[in-house]
């Protein structure tokens, strides 16, 4: 991953990246320049006292592992994570090469491209967003079998009934445990709770559902989720 | 960059290596002794350990020199008449190399000596030594051991690399609670479990991905399952043999030497050795693993009399040496003979063809695409099918050379190749790139060399044992 693309990776989600911080960074993946003199609030600042790896050897998960991990994190069948036009697998057919895979039989592409392409972050976002939207819909439609957002109620306007409630915090914890295999930090939980307010103020007609999708997207599209 | 003098071989050893380099050299346009002399001068250079430096260290395309080679020229026996004999050249090269050690021929900020000793190219500004691995600076890291092998980090990597899926939160918690010894045992058992997964051994799994550049499939001419519109041969057989050789304690060398074939069954994927397959036609005594598969012969020999492409692809795929990149050049005296009158004795061609042509002779009787004789061994093939190619084509011998060593036929070619350091280096490099994520760096070279040497030695060419060893390296398991 080229550093400039890595920067783009986190800059693209913009607001959503606010909460995509790694608790214990193992390598310096991104370091965007300040905009108008202000640092990106979503970028991990140098952690005073935390030793960093100097190996810089993070690897992309690639299409199959990304698809499988998203499926496992959200308890979706792998073939339902993301399909273009509802039928062509994003990971295994449409965006395979973009995500770091190969296409040996038809295109003669026997090895992954040596660097990620300009559309690679977009393809990751596509995969994460499709999976998260599906999980949010399923959890809202059948709350008794909800996997992530269990007990998160919506009011008559489609907003979270209780943004600060324990159910919302539990959902955030579940997202981090299933997506990143760790607990969220206090700051990360606060940022995702704040995200609900931001989504509501954006004028979304279904802010509760959009928050669920966005909170999930923040976790699954983070560098910590996409690299290993 | 270096505070202490670079390691050099003792004087006696240097002279011995120099003499060996001279004795083993042949006659060609670029200087065949050069690689040997460079390694005698810098025996610890990564490019010299189990390998031979590519000509691209000094040449853009032999005999044309690149910027590093050009910088050496004034220091090569100044005042002596040109061209230098191989002996004079070899005697003068060490001093010339030392004279430019502190220079930076390609202007990339790294001195020539630094580049040579750390395995990068002194004439390529895009090839520069990386920052030496440190230990995270001040402070501690509660989540990762950034200074050494981290079992918890390795556990996540092992499951992703071999099973294709991260552990669950609960699995990771359970692993974290284990003792150090129990963690290592769990890593081993998980590796064994995951290498039985479809993600690892199934069609289009990780092993197949390693095989793609070696087999170079083309769907439109595939035969058998999922046949293309012009079915010529079935490369699934090649994937099956490759995978079989990598699995279950089998000998990885048999991908080059097997006289058997392998059948793949599915749900779950199983690879079984068989004596024959309807899709393969080479007689058993003339088989040499995937070098003589129907797919290799049809696609790499095709319609050619002297199958240089088949030889070069075998050299590249299984021995890691790409003649097009001027790697693995071992000029054979008197070569190329140019039996097929292609003009390869021209100086610009001979630098590579002095190696490539004798590498190709053992393929002379293997038929490519030719009706009923396609993909078979045909005694006197050149005499029967290609006698009109040139007046001397039928003089092409079946005996050839590999690494400058005579081989009587393709079976011996394959055996010498499979037993070579080059095979072990290439095989381990494949897994290193797949699992570590990049070719070995200068900092990783000691671990890498030890690994491929154990692959040849105590692991007895078992990839399974190699993998257990590899996941314990710092290159793999240190965050």
Quick overview of this protein structure:
Chain A is an all-alpha fold and 228 residues long. Chain A is built from 9 helices and 2 strands.
Q: Whole-number average pLDDT of chain B?
A: 91
Q: Give unreliable regions of chain B as ranges.
A: 1-7, 16-29
- Classify the oligomer: heterodimer
Number of helices in the DSSP assignment of chain B: 21
Largest interface: A-B, 33 and 41 residues
Number of domains of chain A: 1
* Large-scale geometry of chain B: flat
Task: Please tag this protein with its features.
heterodimer; A: 228 residues; mainly alpha; disordered N terminus; B: 479 residues; two-stranded antiparallel sheet
Task: Please tell me about this protein's structure.
The complex is a heterodimer of chains A (228) and B (479). By secondary structure, chain A is mainly α. Chain A has one domain (3-226). Chain A is 45% helix and 2% strand. Chain A has nine helices and two strands, in the order ααββααααααα. In chain A, strands 1-2 form a two-stranded antiparallel ribbon. In chain A, a hairpin with a 3-residue loop joins strand 1 (83-84) and strand 2. In chain A, helix 6 (166-180) packs parallel to helix 8 (207-220) and helix 7 (186-201) packs antiparallel against helix 8. The two termini of chain A are 12 Å apart. Residues 1-31 of chain A have low confidence and may be disordered. The model of chain B is unreliable at 1-7 and 16-29 (pLDDT under 50). Chain B has helices at residues 11-24, 33-41, 67-72, 86-99, 112-118, 151-163, 169-176, 180-194, 198-201, 206-215, 236-246, 254-257, 294-301, 308-319, 347-360, 381-385, 410-418, 421-436, 445-456, 463-470, 474-477, and strands at residues 59-61, 64-65, 261-265, 270-274, 400-402, 405-407. In chain B, helix 1 runs antiparallel to helix 2 (33-41), helix 6 runs parallel beside helix 8 and helix 18 crosses helix 19. The relative contact order of chain B is 0.10. Among the domains of chain B are: 11-118, no CATH class; 151-194, no CATH class; 294-418, no CATH class; 421-477. With 479 residues, chain B is mainly alpha-helical. The interface between A and B is large, with 33 and 41 residues.
């Amino acid at each position: 991953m080229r550093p400039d693309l890595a920067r783009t990776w986190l800059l693209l989600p913009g607001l959503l990246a606010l909460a995509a911080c790694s608790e214990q960074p193992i390598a310096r993946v991104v370091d965007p320049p300040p905009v108008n003199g202000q640092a990106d609030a979503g970028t991990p600042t140098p952690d005073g006292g935390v030793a960093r790896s100097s190996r810089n050897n993070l690897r992309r998960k690639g299409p199959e592992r990304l698809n499988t991990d998203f499926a496992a994190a959200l308890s979706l069948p792998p073939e339902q994570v993301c399909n273009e036009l509802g039928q062509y697998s994003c990971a295994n057919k449409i965006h395979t090469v973009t995500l770091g895979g190969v296409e040996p039989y038809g295109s003669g592409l026997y090895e992954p491209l040596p660097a990620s392409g300009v559309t690679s972050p977009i393809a990751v976002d596509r995969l994460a967003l499709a999976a998260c939207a599906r999980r949010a819909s399923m959890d809202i439609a059948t709350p008794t079998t909800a996997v992530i957002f269990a007990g998160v109620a919506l009011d008559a306007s489609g907003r979270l009934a209780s943004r600060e409630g324990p159910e919302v915090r539990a959902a955030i914890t579940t997202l981090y445990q299933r997506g990143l295999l760790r607990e969220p930090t206090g700051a990360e939980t606060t940022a995702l709770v704040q995200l609900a307010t931001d989504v509501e103020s954006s004028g979304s007609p279904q802010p509760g559902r959009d928050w669920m999708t966005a909170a999930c997207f923040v976790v699954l599209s983070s560098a910590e989720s996409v690299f290993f | 960059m270096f505070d202490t003098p670079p390691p050099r071989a003792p004087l006696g050893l240097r002279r011995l290596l120099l003499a060996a380099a001279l004795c083993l050299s042949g006659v060609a346009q670029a200087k065949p002794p050069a690689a040997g002399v460079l390694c005698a001068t810098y025996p610890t250079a990564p490019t010299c350990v189990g390998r031979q430096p590519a000509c691209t260290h000094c040449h853009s395309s032999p005999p044309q020199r690149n910027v590093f080679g050009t910088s050496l020229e004034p220091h090569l026996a100044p005042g002596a008449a040109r061209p230098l004999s191989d002996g004079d050249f070899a005697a003068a090269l060490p001093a010339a190399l030392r004279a430019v050690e502190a220079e930076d021929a390609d202007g990339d900020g790294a001195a020539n000596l630094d580049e040579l000793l750390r395995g990068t190219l002194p004439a390529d500004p895009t090839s520069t030594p990386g920052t030496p691995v440190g230990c995270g600076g001040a402070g501690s890291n509660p989540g990762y051991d950034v200074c050494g092998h981290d079992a918890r980090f390795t556990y996540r990597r092992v499951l992703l690399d071999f099973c294709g899926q991260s552990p669950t939160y609960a699995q990771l918690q359970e692993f974290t609670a284990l003792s150090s010894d129990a963690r290592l045992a769990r890593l081993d058992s998980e590796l064994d479990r995951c290498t039985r997964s479809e993600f690892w051994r199934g069609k289009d799994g990780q092993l197949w991905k390693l095989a793609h550049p070696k087999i170079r499939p083309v769907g439109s001419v595939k035969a058998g399952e999922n046949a293309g519109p012009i079915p010529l041969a079935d490369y699934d057989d090649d994937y099956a043999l490759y995978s079989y050789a990598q699995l279950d304690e089998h000998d990885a060398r048999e991908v080059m030497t097997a006289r058997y074939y392998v059948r793949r069954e599915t749900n779950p994927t199983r690879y079984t050795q068989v004596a024959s397959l309807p899709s393969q036609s080479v007689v058993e005594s003339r088989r040499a693993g995937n070098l003589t598969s129907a797919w290799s012969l049809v696609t790499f020999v095709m319609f050619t009399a002297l199958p240089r492409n088949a030889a070069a692809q075998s050299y590249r795929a299984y021995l890691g040496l790409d003649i097009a990149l001027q790697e693995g050049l071992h000029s054979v005296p008197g070569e190329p003979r140019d039996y097929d009158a292609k003009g390869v004795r021209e100086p610009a061609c001979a630098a590579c063809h002095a190696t490539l042509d004798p590498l190709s002779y053992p393929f002379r009787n293997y038929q490519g695409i030719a009706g009923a004789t396609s993909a078979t061994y045909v005694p006197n093939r050149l005499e029967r099918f290609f006698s009109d190619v040139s007046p001397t084509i039928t003089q092409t011998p079946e005996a050839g050379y590999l690494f400058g060593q005579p081989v009587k036929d393709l079976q011996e070619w394959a055996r010498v190749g499979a037993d070579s350091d080059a095979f072990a280096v290439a095989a381990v490099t494949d897994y290193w790139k797949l699992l570590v994520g990049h070719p070995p760096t200068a900092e990783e070279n000691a671990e890498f060399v030890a690994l491929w040497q154990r692959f040849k030695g105590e692991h007895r060419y078992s990839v399974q044992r190699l993998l257990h060893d590899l996941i314990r390296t710092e290159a793999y398991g240190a965050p």
